[in-house]
Amino acid sequence: MRPTVHILRQATRPAISNIAGSCASLPSLLSLSQSQPRNHAQHPRLQQFSTARTMATRCSSSSPSSSSGRGGIEKLPSSPIRVLRTVDSFRRWRRPHLLDQRSVALVPTMGALHEGHLSLVRAAARENHHVVVSIYVNPAQFGVREDLASYPVTWDADCDALVRLDRELADDGHNLGRISAVFAPSTAEMYPGGFPGQEVDSKGSFVTITPVGEVLEGRSRPTFFRGVATVCMKLFNIVQPERVYFGQKDVQQTVVIKRLIRDFMLPIEVVVGPTARAEDGLALSSRNVYLGERRRAVATVLHKALRAAEERYKSGQRGRDAVLGAAERFVDEVLVGQMALGPEKRVRFEVDYISLADPDTMEELDFVHSAKGAILSGAVKMLPVEVPQEGEDLGHSGGPAVRLIDNIILPPAEQ
Ligand SMILES: Nc1ncnc2c1ncn2[C@@H]1O[C@H](COP(=O)(O)OP(=O)(O)OP(=O)(O)O)[C@@H](O)[C@H]1O
Ligand SMILES: CC(C)(CO)[C@@H](O)C(=O)[O-]
Ligand code: BAL
């Protein structure tokens, strides 16, 4: 059996719409430059959700720990970093910084922190007085069949990483600020009217950003950007940051967030940090822990395929087929090589999409305009190992199918 490589083709692509006046310019993409009832557990959908979160917590390396000092103020161990869990407590912390005009940056995360997250915190500390890191696994952005229940939760390791990083920031004289607070709310706190559910037709207060949120990742994960835009709107309203920091690894997410900020007139600057990678090029991602050794070795296929396409662009090719053809051939070769191995050795994967898109709209391009550049992006599903070997490390949670994404920005070229 040979998985199909699905590269977005002309026939299935939406028409390229008016791109003038769109918000995310390529230079900015390149820049690093309570309320409500407490009876959620009685709600059938939330009972389901509570079970899922309990499982996620069980999968975690340890349970939450942080120290509560005098007056019940919770801090990360041996550090001045506050832990705030409610909207009210966060607002009490925030108010004086509004009055004394100290800038506050927000780095939104879902925890399971890695060097990619930490690079965003470093960037935020360079140009803001206070850095707030939010850690919240937002159920609304997970599809009903996605990995909410097994999503890695590593609270203690996250706390250690932030405390270490804060010391590093204190020792380095080039920063304006340090990590001031971790915002770690519960779902009851984030959805005071009750969690609306993960279904496509769930009813509730949602923010949707279309059409950009409907293509690529949005096509495969129809509730994903609705969940992301909704939770980010909530986080932005709670934290009221001057700047927010997002990673280029989730490039379509950065375009959605820029639209949200522009269209809802939020006084926030978006800063996008470059993708942090492992030595072999794999983009760091919290979900990489699912891979296990065998699949980890092949997981670079997407990055390498995108690099092959990038080479075509660098050599002067501008047409879709010429640029993406290189990625397609690379993926084909890897698939053929893997399928030639027996099931006890091989790694199977499916390409969800490989795209060449406009940087402002994420709409597919036939041709890259040199003055504007483009975004090459892709998603692959690494399928579970078929025949595990004795003692084989299959990855977190038994090595389920893992969806990996990556992208490369093709910058405007000399004309
Ligand atoms: N390798 C990376 N380099 C730079 N930023 C990153 C990287 N990985 C994630 N980020 C950014 O960190 C922020 C929080 O992401 P998140 O907590 O979802 O981590 P993740 O590794 O992307 O997780 P997942 O595996 O679930 O996609 C997002 O802005 C995301 O783009
Ligand atoms: C932005 C975000 C924290 C919203 O939950 C999430 O989508 C992520 O971690 O990229
Ligand atoms: N990094 C984006 C979060 C998600 O995939 O759910």
TrEMBL record:
Note the InterPro entries from the entry.
Answer: Pantoate_ligase, Pantoate_ligase_C, Rossmann-like_a/b/a_fold
Instruction: Give the pathway listed in the UniProt entry for this protein.
Output: Cofactor biosynthesis; (R)-pantothenate biosynthesis; (R)-pantothenate from (R)-pantoate and beta-alanine: step 1/1
Biased composition annotated in UniProt, kind: Polar residues = 45-59
- Per the UniProt entry, what are the Gene Ontology biological process annotations, in alphabetical order? pantothenate biosynthetic process
Q: What is its EC number?
A: 6.3.2.1
According to the record, the residues making up region (Disordered) are 34-76
The keyword Ligase appears for this protein: yes
Indicate the enzyme's highest-level EC class: ligase
PANTHER family the record matches: CYTIDYLATE KINASE/PANTOATE-BETA-ALANINE LIGASE, PANTOATE--BETA-ALANINE LIGASE
Q: Which family does it belong to?
A: Belongs to the pantothenate synthetase family.
Q: What is this protein called?
A: Pantoate--beta-alanine ligase
The organism of origin for this protein: Parathielavia appendiculata
